[in-house]
């Protein structure tokens, strides 16, 4: 049980570090990386949930969820990276920049 | 329910995939055929719910808890029907909007429009039919990713940054949702909504999961002050895409929120949490309307009006949830009024906002600009589109006999019955402010035009489909009985309703 506690505290820490990075860092690549750090936090929690009762076999449902979650995160990251490159190619910027808030 | 619940998801999914593989000419034909066939299945499924009540479908014969169930009740059927209506109209509209030579070399947006459009439709249908919190996560992601693909069909650089902002916000929201799901599974060992709802106990882990999931869905629905990504993303998308984004995509995460809030979280949320959501909703109505009045571009005005109208949707949460002093067991007697008022608003807003964004696309097509200043005198040159803007505006303001009026009436009566009079002030003020931005557009339209510049001729089908949507949103108010009866099927709040 204490092992489960260590993993779950670590996953919450990763989630919070990633959230901080997403909010504070303006560079798009850093934002995308920060989101992936957050994703790792969630996946770590799911993987440790599979073994929370410490029986002989791990619970397969969280494993299936992690696999699906990784697929979703990889596709979203791919789209985000492609989009970041096309923003840089078109505007030369690597951040979202001050959006012209003019109505 | 029968296997039609599977076909309503698989048909657009298969059609979208094949449309991608078959190339331009065949793909377009297949896309149109699929888009016109899917509403038939949606109506079929809704009629099964209407006659047979709520039902489950065990995919592959594996029922919950081992398998993943589909579940259809009145709420799912209503959302499916709204999706079918807006999807079919958007399909017809886009035939006029994207007019490309079907031959020719090189990339064109029509190559990816049909696949993305149909995949979005399939994932919306799947979202409205899933009864499993993890399956819902996957469908939410599919909805977001295909919406972003559709936004990127716009060529302007501003669409790129808007889509990026939407993508980052959507990714963050999906991670928060998944974290909530992981906590719920760790504590209660199931992913099925109904089983989870029975097992959920008031505990710290339930409250944290409820907070994470509510925040995530509020970000995806763009509830004030988490709406920062919405106006640019919705305004810079191509015409039919803007219509679907504002009409359906934000409603998908809202649908999920009310389903979870009333079927999963009753044990985990307090009246204070409901009042907090209500305060944000009030902020959305006031702030969004004021911003809409300030806008100089038609599409940005409509997008900010969406921010405001989202507020009305979320008002159902403080109004339908139990408050201090309401009966301890079962839903409060005014709960169904508030709940059905909110859903009724979701449907009438979907029709009206689709009509408005389609009309805005027509205006851009005709004038080459959506500056409200340039719309001077369009009433004489685009009478049908001006009429559409007027009718849809009527629903947004909530004038009788529109669907918006019925929704606001239900919300108002629930607010008074529950003694929460402060929300009535917000509902009424929001209507007045909506009048402000609707008449800014209409006022300009009826001015004497300066000079007589010729306008581009507009395909008839664009004007007709947007008019049909606007008429639908008004006619809904003349005959809301069937909608309310359908919503009552399987509603968790219908038990408290006075028949």
Overview of the molecule:
The complex is a heterodimer of chains A (103) and B (499). Chain A is mainly alpha-helical. Chain A has helices at 2-24, 28-49, 60-91. Helix content of chain A is 75%, strand content 0%. The longest helix of chain A is centred in the C-terminal third of the chain and has 32 residues, at 60-91. The longest helix of chain B is centred in the C-terminal third of the chain and has 33 residues, at 335-367. In chain B, 61% of the residues are buried. The model of chain B has no long low-confidence stretch (mean pLDDT 88). The A-B interface holds A 15, 19, 22, 28, 31-32, 35, 38-39, 41-42, 45-46, 49, 52, 61-62, 65, 68-69, 72, 75-76, 79-80, 83-84, 86-87, 90-91, 96-97, 99, 102-103 and B 134, 137-138, 141, 145, 148-149, 152, 157, 160-161, 163-165, 167-168, 170-172, 174-175, 178-179, 181-183, 185-186, 191, 232, 291, 294-297, 300.
Keyword list:
heterodimer; A: about 100 residues; elongated; B: about 500 residues; mainly alpha
Quick structural overview:
The complex is a heterodimer of chains A (103) and B (499). Chain A is mainly α and 103 residues long. Chain A is built from 3 helices and no strands.
Mean pLDDT of chain B: 88
- Strand content of chain B is under 5%
Uncertain segments of chain B: none
Share in helix of chain A: over 70%
Fraction of residues of chain B in helices? over 70%
Secondary structure tally: strands of chain B = 2
Radius of gyration of chain A: 18 Å
User: How widely separated are the two ends of chain A?
Assistant: 55 Å
Mean pLDDT of chain A: 87
Q: What is the approximate shape of chain B? A: globular
Task: Report the total helices of chain B.
Answer: 19
Order of helices and strands of chain B: HHEEHHHHHHHHHHHHHHHHH
Structural class of chain B: mainly alpha
Shape of chain A: elongated
**What is the CA-atom radius of gyration of chain B, in angstroms?**
22 Å
Largest sheet of chain B: 2 strands, antiparallel
User: How big a fraction of the residues of chain A is strand?
Assistant: under 5%
Order of helices and strands of chain A: HHH
């Amino acid at each position: 049980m204490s092992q489960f506690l260590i993993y779950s505290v670590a996953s919450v820490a990763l989630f919070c570090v990633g959230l901080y990075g997403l909010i504070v860092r303006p560079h798009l690549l850093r934002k995308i990386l920060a989101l992936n750090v957050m994703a790792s936090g969630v996946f770590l929690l799911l993987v440790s949930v599979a073994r929370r009762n410490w029986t002989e076999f791990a619970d397969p449902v969280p494993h299936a969820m992690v696999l699906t979650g990784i697929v979703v995160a990889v596709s979203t990251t791919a789209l985000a990276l492609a989009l970041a490159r096309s923003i840089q190619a078109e505007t030369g910027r690597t951040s979202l920049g001050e959006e012209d808030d003019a109505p | 329910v029968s296997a039609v619940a599977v076909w309503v998801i698989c048909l657009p999914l298969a059609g979208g995939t094949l449309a991608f593989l078959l190339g331009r000419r065949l793909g377009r034909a297949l896309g149109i055929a699929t888009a016109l066939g899917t509403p038939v299945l949606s109506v079929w499924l809704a009629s099964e719910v209407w006659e047979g009540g709520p039902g489950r479908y065990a995919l592959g014969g594996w029922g919950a808890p081992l398998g993943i169930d589909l579940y259809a009740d009145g709420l799912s059927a209503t959302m499916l029907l709204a999706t079918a209506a807006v999807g079919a109209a958007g399909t017809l509209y886009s035939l006029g909007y994207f007019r490309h030579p079907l031959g020719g070399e090189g990339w064109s947006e029509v190559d990816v429009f049909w696949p993305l459009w149909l995949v979005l439709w399939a994932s919306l249908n799947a979202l409205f039919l899933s009864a499993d919190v993890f399956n819902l996560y996957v469908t939410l992601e599919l909805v977001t990713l295909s919406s972003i693909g559709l936004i990127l069909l716009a060529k302007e650089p501003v669409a790129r940054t808007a889509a990026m902002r939407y993508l980052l916000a959507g990714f963050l929201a999906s991670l928060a949702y998944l974290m909530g799901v992981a906590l719920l599974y760790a504590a209660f060992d199931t992913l099925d909504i109904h089983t989870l709802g029975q097992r959920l106990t008031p505990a710290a882990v339930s409250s944290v999961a409820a907070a994470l999931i509510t925040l995530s869905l509020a970000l995806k629905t763009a509830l004030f002050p988490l709406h920062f990504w919405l106006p640019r993303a919705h305004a810079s998308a191509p015409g039919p895409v803007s219509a679907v984004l504002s009409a359906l995509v934000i409603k998908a995460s809202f649908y999920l929120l009310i389903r979870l809030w009333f079927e999963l979280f009753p044990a985990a949320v307090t009246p204070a949490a409901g009042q907090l959501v209500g305060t944000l909703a009030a902020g959305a109505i006031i702030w969004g309307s004021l911003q809409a009045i300030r806008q100089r571009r038609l599409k940005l005005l409509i997008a900010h009006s969406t921010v405001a109208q989202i507020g009305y949707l979320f008002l159902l949460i403080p109004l339908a949830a139990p408050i201090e002093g309401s009966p301890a067991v079962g839903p409060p007697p005014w709960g169904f009024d508030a709940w059905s008022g909110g859903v009724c608003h979701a449907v009438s807003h979907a029709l009206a906002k689709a009509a408005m964004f389609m009309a805005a696309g027509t205006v851009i097509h005709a004038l080459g600009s959506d500056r409200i200043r340039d719309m001077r005198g369009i009433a004489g040159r685009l009478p049908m589109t001006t009429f559409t803007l007027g009718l849809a505006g009527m629903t947004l303001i909530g004038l009788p006999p529109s669907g918006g009026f019925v929704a606001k009436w239900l919300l108002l009566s629930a607010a008074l019955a529950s003694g929460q009079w402060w929300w009535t002030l917000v509902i009424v003020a929001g209507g007045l402010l909506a009048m402000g931005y609707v008449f800014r557009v209409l006022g300009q339209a009826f001015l004497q035009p300066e000079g007589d510049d010729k306008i581009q001729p507009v395909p008839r089908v664009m004007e007709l489909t947007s008019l049909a949507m606007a008429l639908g949103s008004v006619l809904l108010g003349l005959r809301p009985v069937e909608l309310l009866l359908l919503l009552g099927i399987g509603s968790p709040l219908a038990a408290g309703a006075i028949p």
